[in-house]
Every structure is written in structure tokens, then in C-alpha cells.
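Exercise: predict the fold of this chain.
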Amino acid sequence: MKALLNIVWGFPRYVWSGWGSIASLLLFITLWEIGHQVYGALVLPAPLETLSRLVQMLTNEGLWGDFEISMGRALSGFLLSIMTGTLLGMLAGSFVTASILSRPLITIFMGMPPIAWIVLAMIWFGMSDMTVVFTVVVASFPIVFVGALQGTRTLEGQLKEMADSFGAPLWMKLTDVYFPHVFSYLFPAWTAALGMSWKIVVMAELLSTSDGLGAALAVSRSQLDTSGALALVSILVASLLLIEYLLMEPVKREVEQWREK
């Protein structure tokens, strides 16, 4: 509860400190405009043209529905991956034998290209939501699993002994000793898995579904609608930035303070 209050009260200060990020975005837009001037609208439409196309797609072409579909698939796969990855990773980290046995399997999962999982999922599940969600889970699961395993394995034995010697209740051990340490490993893994989920959803939709942002991107590609494709990419990037900097980053800062203590 104290950590949550720190995040809430420190949020205005965090927002004020984000001017560096805003400056980098403005620099990126400037380079984008220069690229438009050099290569022309067919290759790289101007930022204002892309913004105008984005507004048109949101108001007249029902893009909000595709966004909600993609977001639902991404969150479903993400939640499944963090639940299974966290539980199994902590269990594997609690036992040396399980940790050793899991390493080659996780190497296989992490080394498997997402496009290969998409092809297999299309064979197994057809052109359905299950194909997209399954691909998100298998691509994000190993990231969360490794974070949970490392957090559990690196928990210092002296901390456990100290908590036991003082007769600390189980709930106090979990909240004040075990959880802060493990969570400092878990949270970065969750953040990486969230970004992976959003990217995999779009890739899977582009190949296997007729709705969602990925399908809309496929339509823009087939029509050589460069401004439409960039507008869709802008939505994807903006969504990730909002989640990362307005939701994840404040929590991440609090987690890093736990690690330094």
C-alpha cells in the first residue's frame, strides 16, 4: 500500500521529468518531415498527412473496433502468459532440478521465431482468435518464466534465515522479504512481455485474421496506402508509449527503489 501511494503522489513529478522524451519525439518528427521532403509522399508521407489519414480512419472507417479487437487479444494472451510464466517460473526457481530441466525447453521457446509459431497455430487452430492468442502466449511466456525463475533463485538465504530467526509471520515474510525481491525481477519481464504481446498480435492478425489492426495493415499494404499504413503504425507506437510511460514506468521506478534498499 505504501508503494502504491508513493507511485500516485510521485506521478506529477514523473510527468514533469518527461521533457527529454518529448524532445526526442519532436526530433523524430523533424527527421520524418525531412525524409518526406527527400523521398516523396509515396515512400514516406508527411507527418501532417499521416495525422489527417489517422483522423479519417478513426472517424469514418471503424478503426476503433479493430483497435478493441486487437487490444482484447493482446491482453488475453498477455494475462495468460504472465499467470503461467510467473507460477511455473517460481516453482522451477524453488527447486534446483526443475531449474536445470527447464533451461533447454526455455531455450527452444525463446529461439523459435514467432512467425513459425503463427504458421503452426494456423494449422492447429485455423483462422481464429485462438491462433492469435496462442502465438502471444508462447512468445511471451519464456520472458516471464525466466524473470520469475531468476527472481526466485537469487533470493538470498540470509534474508530467509533472518526472517525465521525473528519469528516473522508468513504474511510479513511474503510482503516484506520475498515479494519485493522477486517482483523487482518479475516487473521488467512483465513489461517486456507486454510489448512482445502487442507486436505479436499485429503480426498474427496480418497473416491469419480478417479483423483487428493487423488485418487493417494488410489492407493498407495491398492498396499501397502508405499514409494509412503509417497511421496504423502510429496507433501501435502511441499505445505502447502510453502504457509504458504513463503506467509501467512509474511502477518501475518504485521497483528500482526497492532493489536499491
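Check your answer against the key: Residues 72-131+144-200+235-260 form one domain.
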